[in-house]
Amino acid sequence: MICEKCKGKMNWSIEGATQGWRCPMCGWNIITTYIEDIDRDETEYSLYIKNVTEVDAEKIKFVAKTANVNFVIAKQMLEKKRSMYIKS
């Protein structure tokens, strides 16, 4: 695709929640929303914690991000082996 402003060659890219054509020379662009399939999934999921032998920072961060809770709550969930219900 050719840029309407400077006639340079435009590049196609996906960045975060946008996708479109961007001109590397002048910055002109044509963009639209891009939503990944996983973000459109309306399925309700459950994640169960079991057999955790060692609670470490990596596991706590994973649970915090997955369950959308803070670090302290995630640590408590791992220590108590509580199940998490995650709705996408």
Condensed summary:
This protein is α+β, with helices and mostly antiparallel strands and 88 residues long. The protein has three helices and five strands.
Q: Classify the oligomer.
A: single chain
Radius of gyration, CA atoms, in whole angstroms: 21 Å
Number of separate strands:
5
Basic shape: elongated
Instruction: Quote the average pLDDT.
Output: 84
Q: Note poorly predicted spans.
A: none
Instruction: Sketch the major β-sheet.
Output: 3 strands, antiparallel
Summing up helix and strand content along with how strands pair, one would put the structural category as alpha+beta
* Percentage of residues in helical conformation: 25-40%
Count of alpha and pi helical runs:
3
Would you list the SSEs in sequence order as H and E? Answer: EEEHEHHE
Beta-strand proportion: 25-35%
Strand order of the largest sheet: 1-2-3
What report would you give on this structure?
There is one protein chain. The protein is 28% helix and 26% strand. The protein is an alpha+beta fold and 88 residues long. The strands form two sheets. The chain has a three-stranded antiparallel sheet, with no helix packed on it. It has a two-stranded antiparallel ribbon with strand order 4-5. α2 crosses α3. The chain starts with 10 loop residues before the first strand and ends with a strand. The relative contact order is 0.16. The model has no long low-confidence stretch (mean pLDDT 84).
